[in-house]
Amino acid sequence: MKEPFRIIFEDEYIVVLEKQAKILTLPSPKKEKYTLTSLLEEKLKKPVYPCHRLDRETTGLIIYAKSRNIQERIMNEFRQGIVKKKYIAFVRGRLKQRRGMLSGYVIDKEGKRFGEKPKKAKSGFYVLSERNNYSVVELEPLTGRTNQLRIQLADAGCPILGERKYAFGRDFRVNFRRLALHACFISFIHPTTGKKLNFRLDLPSDMKTFLSEKA
Fold first, then answer.
1. Which of 22, 122, 136, 206 has the highest Cβ tally under 10 A?
2. Pair 19, 62: CB distance under 8 Å
3. Cβ-proximal residues to 112 (8 Å cutoff; 6+ apart), any chain
């Protein structure tokens, strides 16, 4: 099985990966045999602990800790808003502004099923380019709600290409074979050294190819 990740950074406390599409971070109730976590543990021959998650189809940067204590420290950085993340998405149509804030209350479909209440979500956006029937947008989530970017963009009338959970496939005039969302940047404080770490990735090959073919 081809490794669905690439190690970007590793020391004795943390690992930063570039995740590929089509793999879960952790098992779902279906109890998948292979996940990003299980395959990384197999490679490193030791337990690892994800500090956040990316959707199955989303590519990009994800942080793992090598101990529960380090995991908790980094998760505290997320809770305190210290961690900064940016994404690139291809979205249907055009947003009303080139730059702005998506703000409101969101709840994902699983949350609705379990009777959870909507939570306030904020995401900054900047339109990098407008193409034929879609736009390339940089997004910075300022809160960490489940499926936040997917829900907010769908609510704004510009769902992410490949979206099937919060939009209908028939509504897209251009199609992408997965969710066109890529975690391109992450910044956080190293939990033991106190040094600020910044990581940035280029677009994955399938998104680059799409851009060149769907100008």
1. 136
2. yes
3. none
| In contact, 13 and 67? CB cutoff 8 Å | yes
Average pLDDT, the chain: 91
Distance of CA 77 to the CA centre of its chain: 17
Write out the two tokens for 192.
């033991």
Taking residues 12-22, report their average pLDDT: 97
Phi, psi values for residue 135, rounded to 5° = -130, 155
**H or E segment to which residue 206 belongs:** helix 205-213
Residue 89 pLDDT greater than 70, yes or no:
yes
8-state DSSP, 116 = P
Cα angle value 50/62/80 (rounded, 5°): 75
Q: Measure Cα distances from 153 to 79, 89, 111, 120, 175 in Å.
A: 23, 10, 18, 15, 16
More confident residue, 120 or 32: 120
Query: Strands 59-65, 181-189: parallel, antiparallel or unpaired by DSSP?
Result: parallel
Q: At 70, which amino acid appears?
A: I
How does residue 106 score in pLDDT terms, banded at 50, 70 and 90? confident
Cα-flanking dihedrals φ and ψ of residue 47, to 5°? -65, 145
Q: Is the pTM of this model over 0.85?
A: yes
Cβ atoms of residues 139 and 123 within 8 Å: yes
